[in-house]
Write a structure and sequence with these properties.
The protein is mostly helical and 123 residues long. It has three helices and no strands. It comes from Mugilogobius chulae (yellowstripe goby).
Length: 123
């Protein structure tokens, strides 16, 4: 949420809805909630990384919600907040990247396994 407003002062209150990139709070809530719901409602047959994906989704959704309320209340005005903001988003990026790679590997393995089964069936 590090904003491009004046100096080290981070936006607070209603200004978070008008400053870039802080305006992305709302879409992050919507899409984060959708991911959370979709992962939670997925049926899991075999051991796969959906537990990690769910943890990442919940962690980032709760963290973003907490961050949103801190910014909304204006409690982010000390000089420490830009570094905390950067650190939180770096952790979120690493978590989301690791979750997406884990799911991509799982999808590839499932597709490979299903293709192998199909090639073994007699015609």
């Amino acid at each position: 949420m590090a904003s491009s407003t004046s100096g080290d002062v981070m936006p607070s209150g209603g200004r978070i809805f008008t400053s870039f990139p802080d305006v992305f709070f709302l879409p992050e809530f919507v899409f984060g909630g959708l991911v959370w719901i979709l992962v939670a409602s997925t049926r899991v047959d075999a051991p796969n990384p959906l537990g990690w994906v769910m943890f990442v989704s919940v962690f980032c959704f709760v963290g973003t919600t907490l961050w949103f309320f801190i910014f909304l209340c204006g409690a982010n005005q000390s000089s420490v907040w830009p570094a905390l903001d950067t650190a939180f988003h770096f952790v979120a990026i690493v978590f989301y990247l690791s979750a997406s790679v884990a799911l991509a590997i799982e999808l590839y393995q499932q597709q490979w396994t299903s293709n192998r089964r199909c090639s073994r069936t007699p015609h």
